[in-house]
Amino acid sequence: MITYDKLWTTMKRKGITQYMLIKKYGISNAQIWRMRQNQYVSTHTIEVFCRILECGTEDIMEFKK
Q1: What is the largest CA-CA distance in the chain?
Q2: Segments in the chain forming alpha helices (H)
Q3: Which of 4, 27, 60, 65 has its CA 20 to 30 A from that of 10?
Q4: Residue 21 CB: number of other CB atoms within 10 A?
Q5: Residues 29, 12: Cα–Cα separation, whole Å
Q6: What does the alpha-carbon distance between residue 18 and residue 2 come to, in Å, rounded to a whole number?
Q7: CB 12 within 8 A of CB 59
Q8: Cα(7)–Cα(2) distance, rounded to whole angstroms?
Q9: Do 7 and 60 touch, CB atoms closer than 8 A?
Q10: DSSP 3-state assignment of 45?
Q11: pLDDT in tens, the chain (65 residues)
Q12: Which pLDDT value is given to residue 52?
């Protein structure tokens, strides 16, 4: 299972809020909701988050057995 728990930690560390993602960067509420629920998001979405947060995928997601 892929989880996005690290995303919220990285966002906090970088000072990026969900509100900023929506208003400043154009991320949809639906994308954020899917990530909160650890549901599927595209690799394009992961790339967008990496660019916004200036980090690697390991700072956003992880695989848990």
Answers
A1: 35
A2: 5-14, 18-23, 29-36, 43-53
A3: 65
A4: 20
A5: 18
A6: 20
A7: no
A8: 12
A9: yes
A10: helix
A11: 999 999 999 999 999 999 999 999 999 999 999 999 999 999 999 999 999 999 999 999 999 99
A12: 97
